[in-house]
Amino acid sequence: MEMNPQMQMQIRVPATSANLGPGFDSLGIAVTLYLTVSVGEETKKWFVEHTMGVEVPSDESNMIVKTALKILPSLKAHRIKVESDIPLARGLGSSSSAIVAGIELADQLGKMNLTKEQKIQLATEIEGHPDNVAPAILGDFVVSTFVQQKNTSIKGHFPELQFIAYIPSNELLTTESRNVLPKELSFKEAVSAGSIGNTLVAALLTGRTEQAGRLMEEDLYHERYRLKLVPHLAKIREIGHKHNSMATYLSGAGPTVMTILPMQETAAFSQEIKKAGLLGKIVALDVDRQGTIIKKLRS
Ligand SMILES: Nc1ncnc2c1ncn2[C@@H]1O[C@H](COP(=O)(O)OP(=O)(O)O)[C@@H](O)[C@H]1O
Ligand SMILES: N[C@@H](CCOP(=O)(O)O)C(=O)O
Q: Which among 28, 147, 268, 292 has most CB atoms closer than 10 A?
């Protein structure tokens, strides 16, 4: 990113891929796409410079500023510049990255000294579920719970693997994709769904990638209900299997689909997706291990 001498600090937040199949609202990883907020001088009114289109506000109603003001209403207005390669409403945690950036903005400018735990708690209260905001803050693989408004998040190491994201050109708002989920699951289904998620966590944390991959494709919480919104999921999973994929899952609420597969298979896999007439973008991603970072440009 170009350095403007008037900028005092940069906040960089990674994209996230939530759920990993059966870890609905609980598991997530940070991936190597980023939102960067450069913070400039104090101004009379908030001004947000960005190239995200007219639908994203440039004043204090921008999600980043709104979040910062929610955390610290007395925060003085500044000029900020937002650059992001996280696509909006695609299941890669763009709204979480904006919320996390807003909390960080309030924390830094207001010298609040919030702990990471406090930041995750605040971000989860705003986003409603912790599976994107927790890895966006901590990096790597994070297992979380948010019950009765209380968050616990634990960071683990995700195995060194190559991700291929298939990112359709259409947006799918998380709210819309949550609206197709059932209001209730039977006790039996809930027990099965939970046991698959628990075993997946154990498999990932002990490096059992083959078992982990199988379990990632056995979700019972959300993917089957969302299939009508993301018809490409089944096809990509099928192509993945032909190329020794470890797993294919719906990233967050979709429509992005993530496939984890051996490096040497990625070119042939991508070719076959295109041949199948799937016209979205195909992007290779790694796990981001750092989470949110702050770079001070001047004091
Ligand atoms: N950097 C940003 N600045 C302002 N608003 C944003 C930003 N990123 C995301 N948003 C808002 O969040 C919405 C997408 O949120 P959501 O439906 O949860 O999708 P995602 O899966 O990308 O998080 C966008 O349509 C936009 O209104
Ligand atoms: N658990 C949530 C995750 C939403 O992630 P996003 O990246 O689509 O915002 C869900 O599946 O609804």
A: 28
